[in-house]
């Protein structure tokens, strides 16, 4: 009895081990087959999918096709219905030459086919021949046409166009396809902006005439990486790393990316400024490529610079008479006020207040011009940010008391000194705090928080004021912008404060952002590296 049980167990073990061995063999075989396919195409599976998605996109959404081949003529995609009717597995067709469907078929010549497709880049009519899985043979007229990107073949598509007696209709369809393609090419080539289309891994598949002229390059660059052909620099002539390229950000975040702050150095060593827009191409919720559109704005930058220099000159000339008015008004309101009537004192107060607003505007315009011209100085020195905040709080105390605001300042007890430019840091704190006071109704609450979160010092200014409309939040750091919901409530303000703050932080190595809900308040966040601000040489200080 025991011997029989041992025998049964032994047989079971043999069957189990045999099954495991067969399973392992099948897995190895699948891996081997997959590696052959990858070897055939010279790329990883993920890369194959990206390129196949691009080829499908070039075929056109909703277009019926039988097969798609790569630029070498090897099958890379099969219509599922055809695959099912023929009773074939994908690995029986993938990588095979399309000639297997035209061999010994009257009227089909593979050599002529490739000559037309590769040299003339025109559609070619051929007879497809094969058998369905029920054994019934078929012979059908089809059309193979090249998939072109900037006049370069990136693949082929085979489509059914009817039976053998429909050749006239097929020729007409072919002519329509040629006309449609030619129309698309003319449209893209006539666009004045540079247009570059890439696949999902940022390799160039199309580049229009304007792009070639702006970049001073040729069609031979097609197939190369966009990061190699469109090498961008920032305002400090620092080369952008590929991960920070606008197209890389667009493909990563699946959103449009716009900027006007990039530069390129052409082959003739001229440095030009570009306005750049990068967008992902999304098909069926998947990214199949990207489009980057750019134009030369060097002349526009020169005009902006000339206007900035004019504003700087005009503002500087205005400071002297405004200072004189302010000085004499203070003199009359002080020592000589005993002989003035109440009405005359009111007139002097109005003159003084109006003059102070003008001085504030002139100073803001001067600061903007110095920021844009790059002539301002950043001089870091060991600074206690807590002391700066307390100093600003003392300055704004009259406004706080007038509006009966509650202000809370929270900070870590032991905050080290940080290398900052105290003038610029004070300007940042003052702008954020005065904005919070100005745009918070009476008896509101304002909170200032100062903390460390390695590697940054974080300043947070919160209020429960008017907030910023969600449809205008993307403009809050732009020059001269003021949100609609505060214009009727507070007519004072230049719309330059936050623009200046962000410009300073961008150049000093810091950052600023905000969270806001209309009617509930706003919180601004400022980060400064604990290692300090970046020093900058210049000729002017910000006031």
Task: Please explain how this structure is put together.
The strands form four sheets. The chain has a five-stranded antiparallel sheet, sandwiched between helices. The protein folds into five domains: 1-42; 48-190, PAS domain (Beta-Lactamase, 2-Layer Sandwich), CATH 3.30.450; 194-296, Beta-Lactamase (2-Layer Sandwich), CATH 3.30.450.20; 301-373; 381-529, Heat Shock Protein 90 (2-Layer Sandwich). The chain is α+β, with helices and mostly antiparallel strands and 543 residues long. The longest helix has 40 residues, at 2-41. The chain contains 15 helices and 17 strands. 43% of the residues lie in helices and 23% in strands. It is elongated. The model is unreliable at 1-44, 104-109 and 162-174 (pLDDT under 50). InterPro entries: BphY/WalK/GraS-like (IPR050351), HATPase_C_sf (IPR036890), HATPase_dom (IPR003594), His_kinase_dom (IPR005467), HisK_dim/P_dom (IPR003661), HisK_dim/P_sf (IPR036097), PAS (IPR000014), PAS-like_dom_sf (IPR035965).
Summarize the structure.
This protein folds into five domains: about 1-40; about 50-190, PAS domain (Beta-Lactamase, 2-Layer Sandwich), CATH 3.30.450; about 195-295, 2-Layer Sandwich (Beta-Lactamase); about 300-375; about 380-530, Heat Shock Protein 90 (2-Layer Sandwich).
């Amino acid at each position: 009895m025991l011997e029989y049980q041992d025998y049964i167990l032994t047989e079971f073990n043999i069957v189990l081990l045999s099954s495991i061995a067969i399973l392992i063999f099948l897995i190895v075989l699948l891996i081997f087959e997959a590696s052959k396919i990858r070897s055939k195409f010279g790329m990883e599976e993920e890369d194959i999918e990206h390129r196949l998605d691009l080829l499908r996109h070039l075929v056109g959404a909703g277009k019926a096709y039988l097969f798609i081949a790569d630029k070498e003529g090897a099958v890379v995609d099969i219509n599922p219905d055809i695959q099912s009717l023929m009773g074939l597995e994908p690995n029986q067709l993938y990588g095979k030459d399309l000639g297997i469907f035209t061999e010994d078929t009257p009227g089909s010549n593979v050599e002529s086919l490739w000559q037309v497709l590769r040299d003339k880049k025109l559609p070619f009519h051929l007879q497809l021949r094969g058998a369905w899985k029920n054994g019934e043979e078929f012979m059908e007229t089809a059309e193979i046409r090249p998939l072109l990107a900037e006049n370069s073949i990136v693949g082929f598509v085979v489509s059914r166009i009817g039976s053998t007696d429909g050749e006239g209709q097929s020729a007409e369809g072919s002519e329509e396809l040629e006309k449609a393609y030619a129309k698309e090419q003319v449209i893209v080539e006539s666009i004045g902006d540079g247009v570059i289309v890439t696949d999902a891994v940022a390799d160039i598949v199309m580049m229009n005439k304007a792009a070639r002229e702006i970049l001073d390059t040729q069609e031979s660059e097609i197939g190369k990486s966009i990061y190699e052909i469109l090498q961008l620099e920032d305002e400090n002539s620092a080369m952008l790393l590929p991960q920070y390229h606008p197209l890389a950000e667009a493909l990563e975040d699946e959103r449009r990316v716009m900027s006007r702050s990039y530069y390129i150095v052409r082959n003739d060593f001229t440095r030009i400024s570009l306005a750049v827009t990068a967008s992902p191409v999304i098909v069926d919720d998947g990214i199949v490529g990207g489009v980057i559109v750019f134009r030369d704005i060097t002349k526009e930058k020169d005009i902006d610079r000339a206007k900035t220099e004019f504003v700087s000159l005009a503002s500087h000339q205005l400071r002297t008479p405004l200072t004189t008015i302010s000085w004499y008004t203070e003199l009359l309101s002080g020592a000589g006020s005993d002989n003035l009537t109440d009405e005359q004192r009111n007139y002097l107060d109005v003159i003084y207040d109006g003059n102070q607003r003008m001085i504030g505007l002139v100073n803001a315009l001067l600061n903007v011009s110095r920021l844009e011209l790059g002539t301002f100085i950043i001089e870091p020195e060991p600074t206690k940010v807590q002391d700066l905040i307390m100093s600003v709080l003392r300055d704004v105390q009259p406004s706080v008391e007038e509006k009966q605001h509650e202000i809370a300042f929270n900070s870590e007890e032991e905050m080290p000194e940080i290398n900052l430019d105290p003038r610029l840091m004070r300007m940042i704190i003052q702008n954020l705090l005065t904005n919070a006071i100005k745009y918070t109704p009476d008896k509101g609450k304002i909170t200032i928080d100062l903390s460390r979160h390695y590697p940054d010092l974080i300043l947070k200014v919160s209020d429960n004021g008017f907030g910023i409309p969600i449809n205008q939040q993307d403009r809050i750091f732009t020059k001269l912008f003021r949100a609609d919901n505060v214009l009727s409530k507070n007519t004072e303000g230049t719309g330059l404060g936050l623009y200046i703050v962000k410009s300073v932080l961008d150049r000093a190595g810091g950052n600023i952002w905000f969270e806001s809900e209309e009617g509930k308040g706003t919180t601004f966040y400022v980060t400064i590296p604990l290692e300090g601000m970046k020093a900058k040489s210049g000729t002017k200080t910000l006031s």
